[in-house]
Write a structure and sequence with these properties.
By secondary structure, the protein is of the alpha+beta class. The chain has helices at about 5-20, 35-45, 60-65, 105-125, 140-145, 195, 215-220, 230, 245, 265-270, 275, 280-285, 295-314, and strands spanning about 25-30, 75-85, 95, 130, 150, 160, 165-175, 235-240.
Length: about 325
């Protein structure tokens, strides 16, 4: 093999291995500092308090701005995506969970697959690499754009053309220097459906979410009382919200995930109002033992259910 072509061959070998492991997309970005405009927009978002209860998003700004500080010597970010769009859905009359929480906690699934990918890359790079899956201060959507996976829509979701936005993201930092893929530009055009359909008006700035008004943030991250302006518009939701994705035209192309780990259990699908009313901490721990729903804790989920009951009566 010509030494000059080796990095291109390695890149495609790694991409093929990622797809073999079950990832639905894989791209490559050169490790560099986040561009100034993106850094400034993020700091302005923080300064305006739009992170709501998620104060941790203001931590480690130096690491968020430069991935090489997370893994010294890193030269390439391998970005991957994993489809979670369900094949089976909750009955509409049941208290609703966001699709991403239907199955197994994505951290566990993504971490396992990324570690397998890192083991494949290690003989080429000579180092172990660093795996990240929403577990380190990495700007995942930004780097997914740089790696050519998709673009950030007006709803702040990463949208993969021809596939939609129902994807988990993960990264592998490696010292291996690989040719980067070409970034994608925004393709929302004049569409404003996500902004128009958001029940709480949390998408007033394109590509940004105001978490103070976001149903997902308030039902998951908020440990206190949900603000009345949000609670009154929660509708039938008890954990998260998919509205800005459900109305997005790009998600007409969404296809059910082939990953059995993300399929909902029969017990979750049967969780109607009566079962919710009788839900105990032991039930919660059993049903959601390996679920992202544990993030809200039992008290938070039951608080959300109390709002659901109130909204049903009004």
């Amino acid at each position: 093999m010509d030494s000059s072509s080796a990095p291109f061959e390695w890149r495609e070998q790694i991409r093929s291995e990622a797809l073999r492991l079950g990832f639905d997309a894989c791209g490559f970005a050169r490790v560099d500092e986040v561009e100034p405009r993106a850094r400034e927009a993020y700091r302005r978002w923080l300064d305006e308090g739009r992170q709501a209860q998620m104060d941790y998003l203001g931590n480690y700004l130096d690491l968020r701005d430069h991935p090489a500080l997370l893994y010294p010597g890193a030269r390439t970010i391998v970005c991957v995506a994993l489809n979670y769009y369900p094949a089976r859905f909750q009955p509409q009359e049941h208290p609703q969970f966001a699709y991403y929480a239907y199955g197994r906690d994505y951290h566990e699934v993504m971490r396992d697959k990324l570690r397998q990918l890192a083991a494949f890359v290690a003989p080429l790079s000579g180092d172990a690499g660093r795996v990240c899956c929403d577990t380190a201060p990495v700007r995942e959507r930004y780097w997914a754009v740089q790696a050519g996976l998709g673009f950030i829509g007006r709803n702040a979701q990463l949208i993969i053309p021809g596939k939609g936005s129902y994807f988990f993201l993960g990264e592998l930092l490696t010292t291996l220097a690989l040719p980067p893929d070409k970034p994608l530009s925004n393709r929302c055009g004049d569409c404003l459906l996500c902004r128009e359909h958001c029940p709480v008006g949390a998408l007033d700035e394109p590509g940004q979410v105001d978490a103070r008004r976001c149903i997902s943030c308030q039902t998951i991250e908020n440990r206190g009382e949900i603000p009345p302006a949000v609670a009154d518009r929660m509708g039938n939701r008890v954990y998260g919200c998919d509205t800005c994705q459900q109305c997005c035209p790009w998600n007409r192309a969404a296809t059910p995930s082939t990953h059995p780990e993300f399929a909902p259990s029969d017990e979750l699908l049967a969780l109607d109002a009566a079962r919710f009313e009788a839900l105990t901490p032991d039930d919660f721990n059993r049903i959601f033992r390996h679920s992202a729903v544990r993030r809200a804790k039992y008290a938070g989920l039951m608080r959300n259910f109390a709002v659901w009951k109130k909204n049903r009566k009004s």
